[in-house]
Amino acid sequence: MTVRLMLTCLCDAFYGEVGIATVEVLQRIGCRVEFPAEQTCCGQPPFNAGDWAASRAVAERCRTVFELDDPASVVVTPSSSCAAMLREGYAMLFPDWTLRAQVFEFGEFLVRHRGIVEWPGRLRREEPIRAVYHRACHGRGLHLGDLHERLLGTVEGIEWVGLPQAEQCCGFGGAFSATHPKVSTGIGMEKLAQVATTGAEMLVSGDMGCLMHLKGLLSRQHSPIEVRHFAQVLAEAQ
Amino acid sequence: MSVPKVEAFARALRGEVVTSVRTASAAKVASRVSTLGEAFDDIESARTEAARIKDEVLDRLRDLLLEFEARATARRIQVHWASDAAEANRVVLEICRRVAEPGAIVAKAKSMATEEIGLNSALEGAGFRPIETDLGEYVVQIDGDHPSHIVTPIIHKNRVDVARSFVREGLGPYTEDPAELTMQARAKLRDVFRQASVGVSGANFLIAETGRIVLVENEGNNRFSTTAPRVHIAVAGIEKLLPSERELPLFLKLLAGSATGQRLTTYVHLISGPREANDPDGPEEVHVIFLDNGRTRVLEGRYREILRCIRCGACLNVCPVYRQVSGHAYRHVYSGPIGAVLAPALEGIDAIGDLAKASTLCGACEEVCPVKIPIPRMLLELRDEAARAGLGKRDIPWKRFATLAGSELLWRAGLTLLPIARKLPSALGREWAQKREMPMREGRSFREWWRERS
Lengths: 238, 454
Prior knowledge:
The complex is a heterodimer of chains A (238) and B (454).
Chain A: E1 2-5, H1 9-13, H2 16-28, E2 32-34, H3 44-49, H4 52-65, E3 74-77, H5 80-93, E4 102-105, H6 106-113, E5 129-134, H7 147-152, E6 158-160, H8 176-179, H9 181-198, E7 202-205, H10 208-220, E8 226-229, H11 230-236
Parallel strand pairs in A: 1-2, 1-3, 3-4, 5-6, 5-7, 7-8
Helix pairs in contact in A: 2-11, 9-10
Chain B: H1 5-12, H2 15-39, H3 43-59, H4 61-74, E1 77-82, H5 85-99, E2 105-108, H6 112-117, H7 119-125, E3 129-132, H8 135-142, H9 159-168, H10 178-195, E4 198-201, E5 205-207, E6 212-217, H11 221-227, E7 231-237, E8 241-242, H12 248-260, E9 267-271, E10 285-291, H13 295-300, H14 314-318, H15 320-325, H16 336-347, H17 349-352, H18 364-368, H19 375-388, H20 398-405, H21 408-421, H22 427-432, H23 446-453
Parallel strand pairs in B: 1-10, 2-3, 2-4, 4-7, 5-8, 7-10
Antiparallel strand pairs in B: 5-6, 6-9
Helix pairs in contact in B: 2-12, 9-10, 16-19
């Protein structure tokens, strides 16, 4: 089947490797991937900031680029945040409009749409690595639950440990991270304190928003903890 | 860049307060999950049912209020209507002046509605002596403080703070032992109950079909406050109704589980009216004051579902922002996620709409809410409303962002310039980089990789 990749602005700007990993995984399961090069942003940043007029302008473009009126259009994005924007945010922005395309968060597409419950493969490392998974908050509205953790749990070469207080946000919150830096980093430090209790060497999540923020905190502390997107772990497992 | 008020408050907050709030909140989140899991076969359908019942109450509010008034009056409970805080205080003072001597003690059971109307200062202004009898509220009162949580008012304090306050008030010798501190307060408060002429409480639920007042508590001070004095006054928001007592088991279990991780509170009171001729004790008069104070306006507007709230405080406990800033950062009686919607809904967004921006929109609040209030959606709507009203400072030029994102060419040019742009001084960048490294391009560019392979 053919899917359209919504890269996300963060992967477009900083984390190209996550986009590449997403394409590699999709191809490995037999999907043909299209990348509409005209894509920019889904409009979530101004939407969350309250500037719905600016958000509508960006979102309308996104509707056209990804043909969101077409039930045959299948859109996959490695971010629960962007998927939630298309599925929930647009309903608030455009009350008279209905999303007809099939929009999936990447892990959701693999597990729920393609029915993939095991990921045969082993991380290319000499030693098994101890890892924790952080659930991105926008997965709540999409009812993603623990589907990423279940799939990742089948990858060999990783010892998964449960993250205490998993329901707690990382503190990123988009523009909030810059307008409320003390609160944002306070929440992030709390998340990292929980990660530290597990002795994890690798922190994995399905959303680069969370990971950009946590990575920023970790590198300021010169932490050796490796930060990886869900797609990168699957792509690495061969 | 101006610093938002919640952020400014967090910057000035003592580390011990954050520790107290975080520790207590995390413990309550854990006990809530395990208790509700045991109490309900299917917590999701219980929450859906509770939300449906509260919506029905809001839809039929006028009729249910009149039904309550008729049934309660038949029980000799006197029902009063107050359109705002001043009117509610006036009704309480009129009753107190009629039945109590000047300077009389008024025993207060814990009540957010009386916090909302500022009843204590109204009573003091009229020469009465209100004394809070809930342990946490008592500490708040002797410290001249405000509750920082709707269920656990001194979550921001630790036992050392309480020990010092009790010594200062002459309650007994210094001790940090919670049991001993409780006994010191108990001795003091027993005298209050004996001497009080009037007891004032809130109400957790008011039953339309039977005209009864339902109160839940753990300390027994509600029982004393509502039975020992000659007169009991309950102050409650108009949204506190339930259609009948058939709904009570569901709501009592949801409230206790969500608020304190209990299967049921230690006491559940169903108050049926003043004492009968043969009763050995009980108040001679019982009054209910229904408080509107902006609720009718909220009922007609965009934030109507916020009136489903049963004041359990679960959204505060689970909120990552609340844990960092504590309740006082919200500058309102109602704090945390519920306060961030209820406060501006009641007071107006021009007064306190900034609270809506102090959120990561993580959605944990909605996930734990026993009546499924869509708080994140309302925070977004409040942000939209504030922006359309021209309120709040625009830190980010979203219009320019929209122009950039409106064209592939400009967008890609922007991405190319990003490595340079991130080095330029900017207020937002400075804030970001206080404790975090700025993001930078890692590995290959997706667009280049895609172009090369196709």
